[in-house]
Specification:
This protein has one helix at 240-251, and strands at residues 42-44, 53-58, 64-70, 76-82, 90-95, 102-103, 111-116, 122-127, 147-148, 154-159, 166-167, 175-180, 186-190, 197-201, 209-210, 219-223, 229-234, 254-255, 261-266, 273-274, 282-287, 293-298, 309-314, 321-322, 330-335, 341-346, 357-363. By secondary structure, the protein is mostly beta strands. The two termini are 26 Å apart.
Length: 365
């Protein structure tokens, strides 16, 4: 979602870092699990103040759906969903109008953070299925509000029909949240060195390089469309007591989400700079194709609450403006390659409280 486990989203705990009744056999391409809602896009009006959005189309209906990201040609989306009888997220693709939903992941374990390869023929995603076919256990909340950082997460690559599955990471501990540059280079989040940091690797998992190096939860990285920049969410923890708590929880495979900000660096890890200073929890940054602005989700207007909205900001930290005005949750935004559309996840127009669905809107500059 975190790009995940996805960053601090209390309202999306169940989405973050979801195995279905269909574990025993892969669902044929072009079908979805029995009982799963089918997509038929519905057009919604923007909420008052949403001047950048028009022709908002709801693509999924029911269950939990999030982290939808465009293919390089802008024609398809990869997303994670808990639908039908499933208990955990699995990875799917669909057309940008919500049609032709196809499963990609194995149907086992818990998955998160799918992303298309540059040629659009494969998807990378994180999964716990090697650690067990069932959903990993929920975290122990006796230590307060915490998120699971499942050590059984590894990053995999597969064809769009799920075949040809290849494991890309083998280091102990959490590896997830992968996105890909035009060159095929992958950037991801890992705790392999004892802290939550951003790394990059070749398309086959070789030549791993650590890009961040500071105490605190750095992760959720996204390459810019041209591959020159990486945006991520994070926090450098300076307070000794907070750092001790953070490290003790991480050893137990847990993380207590707190305030987070958005950062940008060059693709090789140099030139890191902070973009936001909101006092809230900001996450899921995506750089506009013009490489001058980025969009992100934040609860900066409600720093102690669960109301997350989308914000636009220049890469130098100026010109911040609120994009969505939903009273529940909007998050995980991504611009289409031509900058003319925006995909995001939202609780708006939910049939049941807390349902999260995928929306695509025309972007108005």
């Amino acid at each position: 979602m975190s790009r995940a486990p996805r960053p601090s989203l209390p309202v999306l705990l169940v989405l973050v870092v979801a195995c279905g009744a269909w574990l025993a056999a892969r669902v044929p391409a072009g079908q979805v699990p029995p009982g799963a809602p089918t997509a038929s896009a519905v057009v919604l009006q923007p909420i008052q103040g949403e001047k950048h959005l028009a022709n908002i189309r709801q693509l999924t209906f029911g269950g939990e759906n999030a982290e939808a990201y465009f293919s390089r040609d802008g024609r398809r989306l990869v997303f994670q969903s808990t639908r039908g009888a499933q208990e955990c997220d699995q990875i799917y693709t669909m057309n940008v109008d919500g049609s032709d939903v196809r499963p990609v992941s194995t149907g086992e374990g818990r998955t998160t953070c799918g992303y298309f390869t540059p040629d659009g023929q494969q998807v990378v995603y994180a999964s716990t299925h090697l650690g067990g076919k069932a959903c990993p256990p929920k975290p122990d909340f006796s230590r307060g509000y915490v998120w699971p950082i499942y050590a059984s997460y590894d990053i995999f690559r597969a064809r769009l029909d799920g075949s040809g599955l290849v494991r890309l990471t083998t280091a102990p501990g959490y590896d997830a949240e992968a996105t890909i540059a035009p060159s095929g280079r992958i950037v991801f989040t890992s705790v392999r060195d004892g802290d939550m940091e951003v790394y990059s690797m070749d398309a086959d998992g070789a030549n791993v390089k650590r890009l961040t190096n500071r105490p605190g939860p750095d992760g959720g990285p996204f390459f810019s469309y041209d591959g020159s920049l990486i945006a991520w969410r994070g926090k450098q923890i300076a307070d000794a007591k907070e750092l001790d708590d953070y490290r003790a929880l991480l050893q137990a495979g847990l993380w207590r989400p707190t305030d987070l900000d958005i950062f940008v660096m060059n693709a090789d890890g140099t030139g890191a700079r902070q973009v936001t200073d909101t006092g809230g929890s900001s996450f899921a940054p995506f750089i506009h194709p013009d490489n001058k602005r980025l969009i992100f989700a934040s609860n900066e207007h409600d720093p102690n609450g669960r109301n997350f909205d989308l914000y636009l900001i220049n890469l130098d930290g100026t010109g911040r403006q609120r994009v969505t005005f939903n009273d529940t949750f909007d998050g995980f935004p991504m611009f289409s390659p031509d900058g003319r559309k925006l995909v995001f996840a939202s609780n708006r127009n939910d049939a049941k409280p807390g349902e999260t669905n995928i929306f695509v809107a025309d972007w108005i500059d």
